Predict the structure.
Amino acid sequence: MNDTGTRDGVREVDVVVIGAGQAGLAGAYHLQRTGFVPERDFVVLDHAPHPGGAWQFRWPTLTYGKVHGMHALPGMELTNADPARPSAEVIGKYFDTYERTFDLRVRRPVEVRAVREGDGDGRLLVETSDGDWSARALINATGTWDRPFWPRYPGQETFRGRQLHTAQYPGPEEFAGQRVVVVGGGASGTQHLMEIAPYAAGTTWVTRRPPVFREGPFTEEFGREAVALVEERVRQGLPPKSVVSVTGLPLNDAIRQALADGVLDPRPMFDRITPDGVEWADGERVDAEVILWATGFRAAIDHLAPLRLREPGGGIRVEGTRAVADPRVHLVGYGPSASTIGANRAGRAAVRDIRRLLDQEPAAV
C-alpha cells in the first residue's frame, strides 16, 4: 500500500471502489479489515445522493416486511427493523449507520464517467465529476438500477397513455381508475399487479415466458444450483441473468390468493402497441391507459467501455470476481454475486485477490 499522493492533479490510491450499495460497502469493509485505510489507500465513490444504494429509490409501498432475502452487511446485523416501514427508509438508515460505524468515508454524489488505462504506468485512470483518480486496482460495484431495460415493440411511440418502468413505479394509488397492462413475469411484476389490482379499473398481465411458481423452502442447495447457472454465463462472457430469474417465484400466501382471485393470470406477450392499448397477432386487443414495464435491469458498466472488457457475447468474462481480460478489475454484485449474500462473499473474495495482486506488483512511483 502507498500513501495517497497527487500527480499532475490526479489523486493516487491503491484501490477505487465504485458504488456504495451492498456490494461496494462489503468490498470497502473487507479492504479496511485487511489493513487498507480509507482516503489514503482506497476511496469509495457513489453517485447516489444518500446512503442506501438502489434501495433508496424503491417505491414507498415496498415495506421492509415485503423484501425477499435481505442479508446483513458484513460485521453488523440489521436489528429491530419495523416490517411496516418502507424498505428505502429502513435500509437507507442501516447503510448510513454502517458507513459511519466503520468510517468508510464514502464520497457522494460523484459520477464516474470512464475508467481507462493510465499514463503508461500500469495504473487505471478513473475519471469522475469530482476530478480524476489513479488506482492500481478497481472494485466495480455499480449494480443494475441505473440501467432499466425497456423492450421495443411496434407502435410503441404511438401509445397515448403513460409508459413507465419499475424504476419509476410510484406506488399503486396513482393508477386508481385506470386500465393497466403490466409486462414481466418476475418478482417486481407480480408485486406491482397485486398492489395495483385493488385500485385499477382493470389489470392485464403479459409475460414473454410463463411464470414459474416455486413450492417449498429456498434451500441452500437450490440457491447454489441457481448461482451456478448464472456463474456459467459470466464465465462464457455472456450478459448475466439475475439469480432471481432462475429461481422462480416463491408460492407464498399472498401469491396463492392472487392466483385464486385471477389477478395473476398471465397472458402471452402482445405483438404490437396501439394508441389505446396492446394487440395480439390474432387481432385481440386490450385497451389501457398505462403500460408498466417490469422487465428488469442490465449491468451498469458503460463507464468500463474504454478498457474493452466485453466479450463478443456482450458480457464481461469473469472468474470469481476478476475480469479475465484485466486482473486489476473486479466486478462485485455482477452476475452470480448480484444478491445481498452474494455481494458480501464477492467483496471478500475481490479484496483477497486484490491484496495478492498488489503484493506482487510494486506501487508506481
User: Anything to note?
Assistant: The longest helix spans residues 340-360. The helical segments are 22-33, 87-101, 187-196, 220-235, 253-261, 340-360. The mean pLDDT is 89.
